Structures are given as structure tokens and as C-alpha cells.
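Bumping with the actual sequence this time:
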Amino acid sequence: MTVHLPNAHQTFARYFLPAVPLLAILASLYADELVYFVTRRVPPSGMECHDSHKLTSLSPAEAAYLHVVQSPERDRMVNAGVFSTAETCDDDEISKFNRLYTNKAEHAGCAVYWGFK
């Protein structure tokens, strides 16, 4: 069976995995859904679907029950350094991660960060 991945995720597999230290990849990872697939990682609870972060009208109990990490909580986790490695192709996240991490690998408009400051 052949799996066809979008270019950004092929980029991650081909260029970023060899560039990022193995321990950084094995630790907690913030990434797009397909990156978890490419790296054969199970996403953290609540990170399975990127669009679920937009469900801001849920109560904390509902969010926990549905395994949804809402945007404010996700941002708090990112800013607190919960994720030792972060991957994104989103310009807003790239700007944020530039301030939060010491190491960065870039290719084709995407970036992987490790070494939380």
C-alpha cells in the first residue's frame, strides 16, 4: 500500500527527521496530525485533531470528556515548554516558536524547533 502525503509532511519526513536530535523527537512533540503519522507517534491527548482547538465554547468538563485541548490551553502549554519539539508550517506559529526555542531547522516554508528556552 502506498501512502501519499502532502508536500509539507513529506518535507518533514525527508529533511527534518535527520536534522533534529533523536531525543528531541522522542520527547513531547507539538505537530500537525500527519507529522504524528509520519513519525509513527501517538499524539498527546487533545492534539489528535488540529481543528478541535477551535472549540472554545465547550466547558472545561466537556473539553476534558471529549479530549479537546482548546486554543487558550494549547497556547499555555506551548508557552510553558510542555513540548520539547514543535513542528509547524503556519506563519503565526513560526513567529511564536522563534521566540520560544533555541534550535530551528527550516525547509519549504515549514520549521521544526527544539531546545525550549
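The C-alpha cells above came from a reply further down the thread. The beta strands are 29-30, 85-88, 101-107, 110-116.
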